[in-house]
Amino acid sequence: MKAMIMAAGLGTRLGEIGKDTPKVLLDINGITVLERILLKLDSHGFNDIIINVHHLAGKIMEAAKELQEKLNVKISISDETGELLETGGGIYRVRDFFAEKPFLVYNGDILTDLNLEKMYEYHKRKGAIATIALRNRKGNRAFLVDDEGVIRGWTNRENNIDIITVEKPMNLHELPSMAISVYDPGIFDFMEKGKYTMTSIILKATTTGRVIAFRYDRGYWVDIGTPEQLENARQLL
Questions:
Q1: Which residues constitute the domain of residue 212?
Q2: pTM to 2 decimals?
Q3: Number of structural domains, the chain?
Q4: How far apart are CA 56 and CA 43, in angstroms?
Q5: What is the DSSP string of 105-127?
């Protein structure tokens, strides 16, 4: 199965730590974030992986080459050094890589014990165009999910901005993203070349009624995007 690791972030929230080291190459108790993610993907059946890179791209590409040999997984690179395309544009740029089967997208600053294989099978069983992993956690931005687990909109709690794609009011639950998603290739019908977030595409696709939530409130989920969160990850693991 195929997956994409989003590793083109600038790492600005990490301050001095992120200037010389990309987030995916940060050390977590002797193992880099990238190696941990690759090990997880491979153990759940995802062994054909593409990684997008921008900030300190050369370091990531060198590490990916070494890890491909060490872990026996196939790794391709999407080099966005010339222009950072954000999540949506970055995924669309490599659309030909995914062929005609569902694929997983995993943010390169996330560590979790979420079962990716179960999520992938759930996506196929539901006939979804997009399945978004959601978790009841702190966060200013959240998807709006109905009682059947269908995503119907998005909210920014900090700015009091709601985007709701249903015609009539319904009971909606606010659940932040875990930054892990599964997409059917049909998602590319809502996309085009450019620089934009994947959230905007997900909201477009909600009109199909086939954008669903995969909720996971157990286990652990940690974002290593700040020095404090990085240290938390090291203690947790």
A1: 2-236
A2: 0.95
A3: 1
A4: 28
A5: EEETTEEE---HHHHHHHHHHHT
